Amino acid sequence: MTNRLQSKVIIVTGGTSGMGAAFARRASSEGATVLIGARDKARGEETAAEIAAQGGTALFVPTDVTVEEEVAHLVDVAVKEFGGLHGAFNNAGGGDSQRPIRDIDGPFWHNVLALNLTSVFYSLKHEIPAMAASGGGSIVNNASVVGVVGDPGAAAYAAAKHGVVGLTRSAALEAAKEKVRVNALVTGLVNTPLWQGFTASNPDAANALLARQPTGRAADEAEIAAFATFLLGDESPFITGAALAIDGALTAGY
């Protein structure tokens, strides 16, 4: 490893499994102090303990990202316990999002947007001032390929992820003068536990999705973590306001 995140304090939301946990491990191996914000206390503490066992520094902070006060607390812990905040991977999201428009009711719509869009707004609102006070930093928001294309049957999720891309670009323009960079990842199929479960329970649907994938495979979690690490480090100082595809050319064909 290159220690490209040496001495940086970095938050990862949704850091107990999948891309978030993979990033937490990678960031720690690159020298960062990692704060894991998520709702699952058992898995959060387990992930932090795994990182500590490998010689890293990680702290789990119970956080429901749909509650602004809890997001603010997560940022406050970073500043008070470790002296500042230099980076964030706003990764929390997902949930039950498959429902055609005609079947979407108000609570479903608001729940999907709360988890996948409002949570990113809360994170940016509190992370940017903390990073500005720390001399600058970098934020990566995990969007999705459906942040740039439509998805029949998942309109609420697509609307939320499109919102993340727009929010990212607006935040980048606002934060540039404070030396805070903000980018979004346009992620495609990723071999997370969620994808593995979907593949096991819906093999035909999973194979249909893979058939549309030019690379013929899902990304490994570590591939996403490596790219996020690059964006959060000092080797990408002129990259901000971008929605960066890491999707195996999936959106190139749209």
The secondary-structure element order is EHEHEHEHEHEHHHE
Total discrete domains: 1
Report the helical percentage: 40-55%
Work out the number of β strands. 7
- Mean pLDDT over the residues: 94
CATH architecture designation: 3-Layer(aba) Sandwich
What's the CATH superfamily, by name?
NAD(P)-binding Rossmann-like Domain
Distance between the termini: 36 Å
Name the strands of the widest sheet in spatial order. Answer: 3-2-1-4-5-6-7
Task: Determine the number of helices (DSSP H or I, runs of at least 4 residues).
Answer: 8
Main beta-sheet annotation: 7 strands, parallel
Unreliable stretches, pLDDT < 50, 5 or more residues? none
> Which structural category do the helix and sheet elements fall into?
alpha/beta
Radius of gyration: 17 Å
Per the CATH scheme, the topology name is Rossmann fold
CATH class: Alpha Beta
Question: What's the overall geometry?
Answer: globular
Summarize the structure.
This protein has 254 residues and is an alpha/beta fold. It has helices spanning 18-29, 41-53, 68-82, 106-133, 155-175, 193-201, 203-211, 221-232; strands at 9-13, 33-38, 57-62, 87-90, 137-142, 180-187, 243-246. Strands 3-2-1-4-5-6-7 form a seven-stranded parallel sheet, sandwiched between helices.
Describe the fold and architecture.
With 254 residues, the chain is an alpha/beta fold. It has a single domain (9-253), classed as Rossmann fold, CATH 3.40.50.720. It has eight helices and seven strands, in the order E-H-E-H-E-H-E-H-E-H-E-H-H-H-E. Strands 3-2-1-4-5-6-7 form a seven-stranded parallel β-sheet, sandwiched between helices. Helix 3 (68-82) packs parallel to helix 4 and helix 6 (193-201) crosses helix 7 (203-211). The termini are far apart.
